[in-house]
Amino acid sequence: MKNTPPTNRLIVAILAVLVGLFMIAVAPYLVQISLHRVLTSLIEVSKEKPQYSSGIILFSLFFPVWRAFIFVGGVTLIVIAPSLYKGEEWAYPAGLLASAFGGSGGMFMFLPYVSWVDGFPIPMAITFVSLIYFWASIFLRKVGVWEKVAQFLTLTFMGMLTTHAFVIGIAAQRMLLTRPEKPLFAGLEWWILTMSGEVNWIGVVLLIVAIPLLAFKRKAGWWLALFAACSILIVDAPTQIIRTATLDYLYGSLLSIGLLLWLLLPRFKKALLGEG
């Protein structure tokens, strides 16, 4: 960051403050409005389809959890803004992680709109605003073109896979809570969910930790992202074969393959790790 022109550093710092203020002052209200709409729709849907009633409990829990992450991310962006302007290297990965909370959280809260809620998907506003900082901080740095492109594609795919893997875990829990023959498991298509959901959630943790490490060009970040992508792919691919009613596991497999491509592409790997 110290090699980045002062004007660019100033822009990044200003964006950090503006996006941070949005995440702590506006996003919490958007989350609450979105949660109300999702719960209202699910209550009506579950009257005819009781298997969706478990979503009421899960979304009531995890919307506030992501709101808390987004709030902390906003505070972080505001606090590190002076360090971003000074060009302190540690602030760059910290800012990426903080804004990633908004990008991933907003996308997670948007997905219920696809199935149950009519109207404009309010959580997308949280995602878009957060991504403004996320992408701007990547492209405004004075580094090589290959490093910018590699970080843009790799880190964006990591965020996308984080969101999708978290949603897969939620979906698995939602179905297990209302499964037939509860508390028993009625065959392979049900007990596989007890593995795929948890593996995806572990992948989420690995990816969240990997984002700032990889932005800091640490090999540990590259390896953690690789572990997460491989694990999610290996569990999602067979789960898609076993549970063919949805294509969610196929999408997870494709996202994992995309992330593996960017991680393993030699030119990208060199740029991500500062090698060569």
Overall mean pLDDT stands at: 91
Order of helices and strands: HHHHHHHHHH
Question: What is the number of E strands?
Answer: 0
Please indicate the percent range of residues in DSSP E strands (runs of 2 or more).
Answer: under 5%
Oligomer: single chain
- Secondary structure tally, helices: 10
Determine Rg (CA atoms, Å).
19 Å
- Secondary structural class: mainly alpha
Taking pLDDT < 50 over at least 5 consecutive residues as the criterion, the unreliable ranges are none
Helix content: over 70%
N-to-C terminal Cα separation, in Å? 20 Å
**Largest sheet report:** none
Gross morphology is globular
Number of domains: 2
Describe this structure in words.
- The protein is mostly helical.
- The chain folds into two domains: 1-142, no CATH class; 144-276, Four Helix Bundle (Hemerythrin (Met), subunit A) (Up-down Bundle), CATH 1.20.120.
- It is built from ten helices and no strands.
- α3 packs across α5 (145-177) and α8 runs antiparallel to α9 (248-264).
- The chain is globular, with a radius of gyration of 19 Å.
In short:
The protein has 276 residues and is mainly α. It folds into 2 domains: 1-142, no CATH class; 144-276, Four Helix Bundle (Hemerythrin (Met), subunit A) (Up-down Bundle), CATH 1.20.120. It has 10 helices and no strands.
Secondary-structure blueprint of this entry?
Elements: H1 6-48, H2 54-86, H3 91-115, H4 123-139, H5 145-177, H6 188-191, H7 193-215, H8 219-242, H9 248-264, H10 266-273
Helix pairs in contact: 1-2, 1-3, 1-4, 2-3, 3-4, 3-5, 3-7, 5-7, 5-9, 5-10, 7-8, 8-9
